[in-house]
Amino acid sequence: MAWDQTRLLAVATLSTALVLGSLWYNDVVTVEIKWPVRGKKGISKMKTGFVAPKGIEQLIGNTPMVRINSLSDATGCEIYGKMEVQNPGGSAKDRVALAIIENAEAQNLITPHSGDMIFEGTSGSTGISLAMLCRAKGYIAHIVVPDDTSQEKVDLLENLGAVVHKVRPAGIADPKQYVNYAKAAAMEINNNPENKHRALFADQFENEANWKTHYDHTGPEIYSQISEVLPKGKTLDAFITGAGTGGTISGVSKYLKERLPHVKVVISDPPGSGFYNKVKYGVMFDLKEKEGTRRRHQVDTVVEGIGLNRITRNFSAGSDYIDDAIRVKDEESVKMAKYLVDNDGLFVGSSSAVNCVATYKYAKQLGPGHTIVTILCDSGSRHLSKFWKLAKESASIKDLSQL
Asked: Hey, what CATH class is 58-88+210-402 in?
């Protein structure tokens, strides 16, 4: 093999080892690998040091951060996206699903490879993460989704072996609302003395393992990564993300504010959600909640994954750390999604597009020279039949002033 080819192979192998070796989960298996090093008489020395994750769950977290060049150049700020899309299940919800399962196992509520079941009500991404981990750990996933969830998410759930229950979108007071349906189904199994298997209601909205995993892992990762990226004397100025369960914004903002009290935390919010008014005016209400004005039962938007009209336990855990809110229109998020593909090659999902619109707007408010981090939650591949169908039909914009 030519020396240049050998050196290229060695660099690629070393890069993989460094990425996997930085995992923060325990119980990894050390596997010896060797790559050639050029000595005086050619290739003779050998080095070792590859660390292999023990199971797919050890690939979760420690996601990279990328400078979003188009947004940075347009604003004069340094804008970075935390690439949660690079989790093995394709979204930030891998962290939450793993934390919920491991917490339940520690309390002996469920046992791996025993036939126990996990129920959750979700618009898609959390269900996909749970389905993946249930397969790996020997559980049966039962995922309850609104019947207008994008078909590609439903297909993915079913291909991952989940039992999918579709229900009509409804308010939280309705016993047949998708979260309530999942909770009731789990309770029915647990209350049946003849049933040999147990059922866990994951309860991502109220289960505090959600925000705590972002405090324990996502927050520290962002803090460490941005500290390494920025030159001496520079610091993080703002963190911007949306909220569905509220776990990400609560956990990350709490961690960052404890170390960087000056950091501004901003919530990005789609149409129909009440978080914007809650942060701005202290009232969890949106005009689309008015009787007879809302087309969709939960949140009147094409955006999936963020936006809600009630305060969850996870949101409450960090609400005091949120400084501001930015409302993002559907047409703005659609235009942003196309702009990121055209200018950065980033194919993002709807909630990531909302985050990027809010980040651009806030950067313009701050002015040049500031540093902002946002979350790139998931890929556009999960939004082809709804959000990206609209984006495909929408005209591209040449610059962000056209948002």
From this structure: alpha beta
- The set of residues, in sequence order, having a beta carbon less than 8 Å from that of 383 and lying 6+ positions away, is 150, 152, 304, 349, 350
Say which residue the tokens 């959000």 belong to: 387
* Residue 348 per-residue DSSP state: B
pTM: 0.84
Tell me: pLDDT of 21 over 90.
Answer: no
The CATH code of the domain at 93-201 is: 3.40.50.1100
Q: What is the set of active-site residues?
A: 93
> Exposed (0-12), middle (13-18) or buried (19+): which is 75, by Cβ within 10 Å?
buried
Q: Which residues pair with 51 in a beta bridge?
A: 30
| pLDDT on residue 107 | 97
Integer CA distances (angstroms), 64 to 193, 256, 266, 375, 390, in order:
47, 18, 21, 11, 29
Helices (H), 107-218: 125-137, 151-159, 178-190, 209-213
For 183-241, the pLDDT digits (tens) are 999 999 999 999 999 999 999 999 999 999 999 999 999 999 999 999 888 999 999 99
